[in-house]
Amino acid sequence: MQKQREHWGSRLGFILAALGSAVGLGTMWKFPYVTGQNGGGLFVLMYVFCTFFIGVPLFVAELLLGRKAQRGVVGTFSLLSNNSVIWKTAGWLGVASSFLIMSFYSVVAGWSLNYVFLSLNQFYLNRSAQEISHVFDVLAASGDITIFWHLLFTAITAAMVYRGVRQGIEYWNKVMTSTLVILLIVLCIYSVTLSGFWQGFDFVFYPDLSKFKASSALEALGLAFFTLSLGQGVMITYGSYMRREDDIPKTAGIVGSMLIVVSMMAAILIFSSIFTFGFGPQEGPGLVFKTLPVVFAQLPGALFISTSFFFLLVFAALTSAMPLVEVVSANFMDLYGWSRHKAVLVTAVGCFSFGIPSALSSTDIVFANWRQIYGKSFFDTINDLVSIWLLPIGGLMISIYIGWFLSREVVYEEFHAGTRLGYLWRPWLFFMRWVVPVGIILIILQTSSVIDVNHLFS
Length: 458
Ligand code: PFF
Hints:
Elements: H1 11-22, H2 25-37, H3 41-69, H4 73-80, H5 85-120, H6 129-141, H7 143-162, H8 165-192, H9 197-205, H10 214-227, H11 234-239, H12 248-276, H13 286-298, H14 302-336, H15 340-359, H16 370-374, H17 378-405, H18 408-416, H19 425-447, H20 453-456
Helix pairs in contact: 1-8, 1-12, 1-14, 2-10, 2-12, 3-4, 3-9, 3-10, 3-12, 3-17, 3-19, 4-5, 5-7, 5-14, 5-15, 5-17, 6-13, 7-8, 7-14, 7-15, 8-12, 8-14, 9-12, 10-19, 12-13, 13-14, 14-15, 17-19
The protein binds 4-fluoro-L-phenylalanine (PFF).
């Protein structure tokens, strides 16, 4: 017999959990540098467009599926599709993606945790700019230290999820997501006082056509996908803790809008800081760990600014990592009747162990020849595998399933349950059937280099 399923305690709790899952390293770490590489304003506009027209509809679809089935991702597909092997595979794909993302996500999150500690120790004192940014290279090359933080981060995440949906996930999201938003607002207000503020502001909002490439649009779509945590069953799992009276389209709209506001605040904060000290926008992934500490060290109140920023990053990462662990453990609970405690423990040990080679990617300790064989580090191999293939394919399967395979009446009824936005039904269905799948297929073709849209449009 199914055990009584837990549900979210309040709508706000769910919104904060969904927002927490969305706002993570993707928003704080990837969004700014990808914006930098794609010329700023127009890219941001494209990101907003993709979030609302492709991300949010798919977000709604995942929540609907989960709420309908009241199961984890594999259980949802097998229940609704009468045990079809293909659709169950789509579910397992989601579990695999979550597991793989967690394995390397917690390495980067562990570095953030390390930077909180470093900031509290004022590690930047009496060091030149070069020495400060070099700290990160030393850290990445120190296997033991990286593994220590990776372990600590995984353990903290697991401890939070261990307590269940309401007392664990919802409770911690309320605390951390709201603190994150407040901290971000405080830091943004502070950034207005910086001399580079307007330059940063312009950079984020001014659409510069000359730097925008056709591939930037797909890049924006991929990013919208990753930040909204789509394509791997996170929202199916979160939806399974919703009640029929909850308003899914409205909630999705709120989460999408809040995500955009938070991403823009993060980008403004980061760019005004780096422009104040004459750094360029295109600093790549090293932006957060190499450039920002140098910038913070020169600001008045460095201790406060640097510590708050890295705290913010850790909170963002924790609230995004919780659902990753939950997706995997919810399956063990649903499918094999495991207790939550056992499921979370097994998941955490698995993610930690599989993450070890990622943590040691910049060293020669394990898989020393990986780079020579595969052409990139273990970390990048897994990261690319997930972002280029697994997430888009997962999203594609979800959209095709709900748009073309699941009975129209079931989808219609579930869409209308609990919402007053029933008039969005037709446009939403059209997007699910056509726009979302076509958009995703284009991303897959572009990122796997089968086509080059820059070439097609030049
Ligand atoms: N949305 C998170 C971010 O932008 O960092 C990343 C993420 C978290 C992706 C959880 C997927 C997920 F299930």
